Amino acid sequence: MAKQNVAEQFVDILVHAGVQRLYGVVGDSLNPVVDAIRRNSAIDWVPVRHEETAAFAAGAEAQITGRLAACAGSCGPGNLHLINGLYDAHRSMAPVLALASHIPSSEIGLGYFQETHPDQLFRECSHYCELISNPQQLPRLLQTAVQQAIGRSGVSVVALPGDIAARPAPEKPVGHALVTSRPTVRPGDTEVDALARMIDEADRVTLFCGSGTAGAHHEVMQLAERVKAPVGHALRGKEWIQYDNPYDVGMSGLLGYGAAYEATHECDLLILLGTDFPYNAFLPDDVRIAQVDIRPENLGRRSKLDLAVWGDVRETLRCLTPRVRLKSDRRFLDKMLRKHTEALEGVIKAYTRKVDKHVPIHPEYVASVLDEIAADDAVFTVDTGMCNVWAARYLTPNGRRRIIGSFSHGSMANALPQAIGAQFACPGRQVVSMSGDGGFTMLMGDFLTLRQHDLPVKIVLFDNSSLGMVELEMLVAGLPSYGTGNLNPDFAAMARAAGVYGVRVEKPKQLAGALRDAFAHDGPALVDVVTDPNALSIPPKISAEMVTGFALSASKIVLDGGVGRMVQMARSNLRNVPRP
């Protein structure tokens, strides 16, 4: 048996850790690793057109599967391109291992061609970032990187010089027992009992949920029923908590809707469940607050806490709910449910009158039709900007759909590359990229990646020829819009020129048929929908402070658009409110 080199051992360890593919762009310093993948049937090399796409794709795959995913960049500029997607993966708590290939080890520190210092550059967007300078480091160092990424839910970066990758590996065979899943963590009885006492002492309890409630829907509903609590959510909590929720009062934040804001401010105990909601201007400062989070560093960094509970939300609630006294007073819950329904009823009128005849097409109408036509288990990837608004307000979660975006990092151009990773992870599942024209064109080169790998991703392009969210921010701040316009081609014609199914939609009556045909197409497809750049009504009186830093009033008076099928959900929940 031929002796392994370092690159082959590196790849074997990745396979042992459950990695199925490595996204990246080939380059000389990466050649030994790419060649090792070529000769290993258990893992695939996925070539993309830009390394940023590789990192976004790996992050999306990790979020969909919950398993470690990987990406790679060659030395210098190659691995530098990874950094934005790695920031996003790290802030999304996606377990990703990045290989930052490096210049020859003998030249490090001497100003060599393409020299950077990846072991320093990636520290801020990773839990672990180290340089392999000797083959003897490899097994233990890579094992540590894998376990940091998985155990702490984030990014690990390994910098590997190309010459080291080509050297013989250590004699000792690889046989490490790797950690490939996370444990559940419950708090101690002291903290659980303290939280139970706070709930028993409170008359009005509100639950506010984030992405940490993934897998805890049943437990949250049990607690809400026991203490008669309205349940609000942040954007990243929407897919996990909004469906089958008779206590739903909507979302808080700049994109918020419904009565979530009122429910968090009019209670006398607010319980933050698995959320690192960053906009503290939307959080109250005059009510008691308890927070439950698996990450201790999240506890109390957004608001002053009366109780911090370190633990997994599901396990914590399993311990907590039986210890809490049953409440019978529904007055606060019912009041919030009524407010929620009234708030949703009040904003739908402007977006239900003749929208099927409005040209250019209302983007709200596009999102609403998309929500109805897409599969019940579709994966939506959502561009940052106005697509976030439409996803937040029109996509209906059901416990099977997934909604992935750059919700914590806020990067443009994320939707298409995330769709690539999601489709590789779920080859038989419908993946829909809700792309804005600004985000799509930023990494448009990887549209060709769909064609190269025949990935059946469906791109629904909200084409308003502008950077809509930036334009809104300028107008709110009292500035004339400047530099926000895009001169766009016919994207559908461009898609067809690349050998991809493409259709352009300019009239509302064409939309449903175009989406159905694209979704039925066996392969990638692009639906270029020309939408109204003036879809949002700007109120006549607003101060710059209202939007700076996503401040308090912005969500209530700026983004007062429609809410899709959520109004039907609210009406259904309202039927459960006892009549006086």
Automatic annotation (TrEMBL):
User: Annotated Gene Ontology MF terms?
Assistant: catalytic activity; magnesium ion binding; thiamine pyrophosphate binding
UniProt cross-references to PROSITE patterns, sorted A to Z = TPP_ENZYMES
Residues of the Thiamine pyrophosphate enzyme TPP-binding domain: 383-529
Instruction: Specify one Pfam family.
Output: TPP_enzyme_C
UniProt keywords, alphabetically: Pyruvate, Thiamine pyrophosphate
Q: Which residues form the Thiamine pyrophosphate enzyme N-terminal TPP-binding domain?
A: 5-120
All residue ranges annotated as the Thiamine pyrophosphate enzyme central domain in the record: 192-320
User: Which InterPro entries would you find in this protein's record?
Assistant: DHS-like_NAD/FAD-binding_dom, POXB-like, THDP-binding, Thiamin_PyroP_enz_cen_dom, Thiamin_PyroP_enz_TPP-bd_dom, TPP-bd_CS, TPP_enzyme_TPP-bd, TPP_POXB-like
Which family is it part of? Belongs to the TPP enzyme family.
For this protein, the record's PANTHER family field holds: PYRUVATE DEHYDROGENASE [UBIQUINONE]
The protein, known as? Pyruvate dehydrogenase
Q: Which organism is it from?
A: Streptomyces tirandamycinicus
- What does the organism's lineage look like at the top? Bacteria, Bacillati, Actinomycetota, Actinomycetes, Kitasatosporales
